[in-house]
Design goal:
alpha/beta, Chitobiase, domain 2, 5 domains, eight-stranded parallel beta sheet, seven-stranded mixed beta sheet, 19 helices, about 25% helix, globular
Length: about 1050
């Protein structure tokens, strides 16, 4: 069987930083040290955090936050004391520019840190924090051999924490946190904050602190080494209307744009550090980070946040700065005389903060476009601009004896720039290659060959939000965390570990995927492919307590699957079928169950946690469910008007009601907590008709029928599963006037029931009944249907005892009614009843029904290993029950017959003259290993020669492979992206084995559909077929998409 990775869901008894070693407890244990509580020999309010005044401003700020965090948890703040301080608080000094064109600065200004407690008595010290080489206090402890920092000294963002006896005269014990650098100390401090019960999202998601009366430091030494990824950041982008409106509601407008000032960014900086991140691309649609508020950049440096600028904004200058202060065209080839001084200014302005700066290099076209030149000329313009930029940095750093090689820079290979690089564009060895995804979460490229040995390394620019083709997605969270793990493993394992930056849109609404992304970046070895349930449970415990953590985590996990099937903005009434496979109703039922569970959990939580739960869990679930109801019911309205049902009008009204509910839900968010988040959910999300956002929410056209008149075919109509056709009467979906419809077949290995519907098409209530053979069961077989008695009745048809059906036959269902059928004959429905059985020797595998076999990828009959590679499951990855992929992701090419194989046994009955089509649904991955190793798989049935399929083609003029747009919209290759994943095979009745080989790592198989002539149109494909070793005849419902 396929290797199944089962995550451990154990939770620490105490709250712990997600995935990190626990060092804090809330009850006394062996040799633990009490940080807070009345039994520690001190008054609860007298505990001190001791820092050295010569330490970094950001470390002292974090220490002050920790003192406040104790108050959030216990009700009483600790005090912040500076060791041998001569000042009242930490001070960061800076100079504001006096011009935005010619660099010059004004007088010194100050950014003030937290106030120190005025005391020289350190006896109440419980925590000592500081940075090696920048804290007199820590250096004193190291010199006295009170702490051992040998494992972290000189390393990036590392820290050690431990309880130390007699660290200072009069202090018997203290928890000491020593950082290798500023952020190492800060991460060590916030690690304690998180463990005592303060969420990193205390402001951004309004998570209340978990209350405790006693807090203890455990007697353990924690050594936290460097993070997996060096620079871990987010890009606030596409920030209109939501974040922009919220900012304008809460902060004073800037001179040129929204009020994204230092007060706003201080909340972002703190969030990043609490999430153990360190890097930021600021909002840029209408913003200019360094101009909107001159205090922004020095404040970032004070916090120890590494500032950069987006992929299209080189040399620390915002796009809008060129519009305000630049001269001429944004072109290096024709206007470098103006562009070069513009770059020089950006470098000069950043120099005071050079230790926390990461320069974006090169140029693109104006406004996030390609350079308007031929490829060769564009490459020359880009490389010439970098040559000049490097000269500017060399000149800037010359007085310090340094050069451009001594500071971090990156060249983002976004869109056409990757084509330039692969076309021969030269990039300096020490510049980081920032590869990208396709804007839809699929990594386009990772370093290969000699690219892996470059001193500048490589990174990834990833997206949780996007504006562009095939359509924007920027409303609320649509991220499947299992896919994030899979794609980030591709990135990291292939050497792109220098920079991870993710586009987070408005930031608000994406709390869960952001937190998850940064945890992967910080310590990716903690989180395997199967780790999402564990991570979500830990996240839920931190945010809401352990009592409901498992249930909350499960809701968040299921939401990620449902929302990622198709972005909300890509939905339409026709996305899910309302006639085939009960698809739309099943999907809507999944959403309804999720919404019910989320609301129940919300109502059971303590009142002080309900707002946070609403923001992060309940709102996306209920808002998503409402959007799905709008589109599914619009599709039903369209079906009903085709069938002239009386219920057409009520279905239209239901759509209007839910359209109003959508607005009510938004208002609920905006009025929460006294209107704290007013404006943040202003993003339009209904009514897309091309890639750009609609200017106003709208719904598709709705249809109505005249309810004061009766159909010319009478007061009743009959419809069947799998068809738009109705009887009695004429329509375009069946033979005119025949009065007869043929339903989908009843088979032992098919769905246990089929259905037909009796519905009102007139003004009268009518009694009706259905006569059927004795071996069939109809529920119900009679009733009353009319405008006031219930417009629609679904009749389920089944065979309760298959032993009573010995041969294939067609059952006739005859309808009678107290009303006439207008000018037409009474309806008749034919039901094919096909008794079948598989031989006793077929003990495991899938069985055909309705002329098709569908298999979820993780349900293989056999899985082999070869050449150090194997297949693993990716739980909850993809559109239904999970997926499978090759491991390790760094495996070499493994042509069919040389690598591991997945085998799927299946049994068919249908004799077909033409070859059968087998379509694979594969995750929309790209050729990330370069054009030299495109993604391929091989497939064979029984003993036939394997067919090797390259399903991701060579990029076209729009820099995407053929079928990419439909593939990312569908979240899979093989749905509407073309026939790249369809092969033809000769299949005779009997037992068969389908063999699948992933020729390249990164091929992610979700589903297999074997079409013997019966597959009907749907979005998710047919539900999984009957499994002999799992399902029972008469029990299989045939309408399940998610794992049960």
């Amino acid at each position: 069987m396929l290797l199944k990775l089962l995550p451990s869901l154990a939770l620490f008894s105490a709250v712990s930083a997600l995935g990190q070693k626990q060092t804090i407890g809330f009850t006394a244990s062996h040799d633990s040290f009490q940080l807070f509580g009345s039994s520690n020999g001190h008054h609860a309010s007298s505990g001190q955090i001791l820092v050295s005044p010569d330490d970094y401003w950001g470390v002292q700020k974090a220490a002050g936050d920790l003192a406040t965090d104790f108050g959030r948890v216990t009700g009483t703040n600790l005090s912040l004391t500076a060791y041998a301080a001569k000042t009242a608080q930490a001070v960061y000094k800076w100079h504001a520019p006096t011009s935005d064109v010619v660099y010059a600065v004004g007088p010194e200004q100050q950014i003030l840190g937290p106030l120190y407690t005025k005391t020289k008595d350190y006896k109440d010290t419980v925590i000592i924090v500081g940075t090696i080489g920048h804290s007199t206090l820590i250096d004193q402890l190291v010199k006295a051999k009170k702490i051992d920092v040998s494992k972290i000294k000189g390393k990036w963002e590392s820290f050690v924490s431990q309880v130390v006896k007699n660290p200072l005269p009069g202090v018997s014990k203290a928890l000491v946190i020593a950082g290798s650098d500023a952020r190492g100390s800060i991460f060590g401090i916030y690690d304690v904050s998180e463990q005592i019960g303060v969420s990193p999202f205390w402001f951004w998601a309004d998570t209340p602190a978990q209350k405790h009366s006693e807090i203890y430091a455990l007697s353990t030494v924690k050594v936290q080494g460097p993070p997996s990824v060096k620079y871990r950041g987010l890009f606030i982008n596409d920030e209109q209307p939501g974040l922009t409106n919220w900012v304008n509601n809460n902060y004073k407008p800037g001179k040129y744009g929204p009020g994204m000032n230092h007060l706003f960014f201080s909340t972002v900086f703190e969030l990043l550090l609490r999430l153990r991140a360190n890097y930021l691309w600021p909002a840029m649609w209408n913003g200019m980070f360094n101009v909107d508020d001159y205090e922004n950049q020095p404040l970032a440096d004070a916090y120890a946040i590494v500032m950069g600028s987006s992929h299209t904004e080189p040399m620390m200058r915002a796009t809008n700065e060129w519009g305000h202060f630049g001269e001429g065209a944004w072109r290096w080839d024709t206007n470098n005389a103006s562009v070069r001084p513009f770059f020089e200014y950006g470098a000069q302005r950043a120099k005071p903060y050079i230790n926390n700066s990461l320069f974006t290099m090169a140029m693109r076209g104006s406004g996030d476009t390609a350079i308007p030149l031929t490829r060769d000329k564009a490459i020359k313009a880009a490389t010439d601009s970098v040559t000049a930029q490097r000269e500017i940095l060399d000149e800037l750093l010359a007085d310090e004896g340094k050069s451009a090689k001594d500071i971090p820079q990156m060249w983002c290979l976004y869109k056409e720039v990757q084509d330039y690089f692969e076309g021969g564009m030269s990039v300096p060895e020490d510049v980081t290659l920032l590869w990208t995804d396709d804007n839809w979460g699929n990594v386009r490229r990772v370093p290969v060959g000699d690219e892996k040995t470059r001193s500048g390394g490589a990174g990834i620019y990833y997206h949780f939000d996007y504006v562009g083709d095939p359509r924007n997605y920027k409303w609320i969270n649509t991220i499947n965390l299992a896919k994030s793990v899979e794609q980030m493993k591709i990135t990291y394992e292939n050497g792109a570990d220098r920079i991870w930056i993710v586009n987070v849109g408005d930031l608000k609404g994406l709390e869960i995927p952001i937190n998850h992304y940064f945890d992967l970046a910080y310590d990716i070895d903690q989180w395997g492919y199967d780790s999402v349930p564990k991570w979500l449970k830990l996240w839920a415990a931190r945010e809401f307590g352990s009592k409901h953590a498992e249930a909350i985590g499960a809701i968040a996990d299921k939401y990620g699957i449902l929302a990622a099937r198709r972005k909300y903005e890509m939905l339409s009434p026709g996305t899910y079928s309302v006639v085939n496979y009960n698809e739309a109703e099943t999907v809507l039922g999944e959403w309804a169950a999720l919404a019910k569970d989320a609301q129940k959990l919300h109502d059971s939580l303590p009142a002080n946690t309900q707002a946070s739960f609403f923001e992060t869990v309940l709102h996306p679930v209920t808002a998503g469910y409402t959007v799905y109801k709008i589109y599914v019911q619009t599709a039903q309205n369209d079906l009903y008007v085709k069938q002239k049902r009386t219920a057409t009008n009520s279905k239209a009204q239901a759509v209007l009601t839910d359209f109003n509910t959508d607005a009510v839900i938004t208002k609920q968010f905006h009025t929460l907590l006294g209107g704290k988040w007013n404006g943040i959910m202003d993003q339009t999300h209904l009514g897309y008709d091309y890639w750009q956002q609609p200017m106003r929410n709208s719904i598709p056209p709705l249809a109505f029928v005249q309810t004061t008149e009766t159909s010319v075919a009478g007061n009743l109509g009959v419809g069947i599963e799998g068809s738009n056709a109705t009887v009695s009467g004429d329509d375009q979906y069946h033979d005119n006037g025949s009065g007869t419809l043929t339903s989908l077949p009843l088979e032992p290995y098919g769905p246990k029931t089929r259905y037909l519907e009796v519905f009102s098409r007139g003004t009268q209530a009518c009694k009706w009944s259905i006569a059927s053979p004795s071996y069939l069961k109809l529920e119900p077989s009679s009733g009353v249907t009319g405008p006031q008695q219930g417009c629609d009745v679904r009749v389920h048809i089944s065979v309760p005892d298959w032993s009573k059906v010995t041969e294939t036959q067609t059952a006739i269902l005859n309808f009678t009614s107290s009303c006439d059928w207008g000018n037409y004959n009474s309806p008749q429905v034919k039901v094919p009843v096909i008794p079948r059985s598989v031989p006793g020797t077929f003990r495991a595998g899938f069985v055909e029904s309705d002329r098709q076999v569908t298999i979820e990828a993780e349900h293989s009959t056999k899985s082999t290993t070869a050449k150090g590679a194997k297949y693993i499951t990716l739980p909850n990855h993809g559109r239904s029950q999970g997926a499978v992929s090759l491991s390790p992701i760094t495996s070499p090419s493994l042509p069919a017959g040389t690598g591991p194989v997945l085998e799927y046994d299946f049994f068919t009955f249908t004799e077909i003259t033409n070859p059968a089509n087998i379509t694979l649904f594969l995750s929309p991955s790209l050729n990330f290993l370069s054009v030299d190793r495109p993604l391929k798989y091989a497939i064979a049935v029984d003993g036939e020669a394997p067919q090797t399929i390259q399903f991701v083609g060579t990029v076209t003029s729009d820099l995407s492979p053929p079928g990419w747009g439909p593939a990312v919209a569908d979240a899979a290759w093989g749905v509407t992206s073309g026939r790249q994943t369809t092969t033809m095979h000769s299949i005779k009745p009997g037992k068969h084995t389908l063999k699948f080989w992933a020729v390249e790592p990164g091929v992610v198989l979700q589903k297999i559909v074997i079409d013997l002539g019966g597959v009907r149109k749907s979005y998710l494909g047919p539900p999984e077929s009957f499994r002999v070793d799992v399902n029972k005849v008469g029990k299989y419902d045939g309408t399940t998409y998610l794992s049960q």
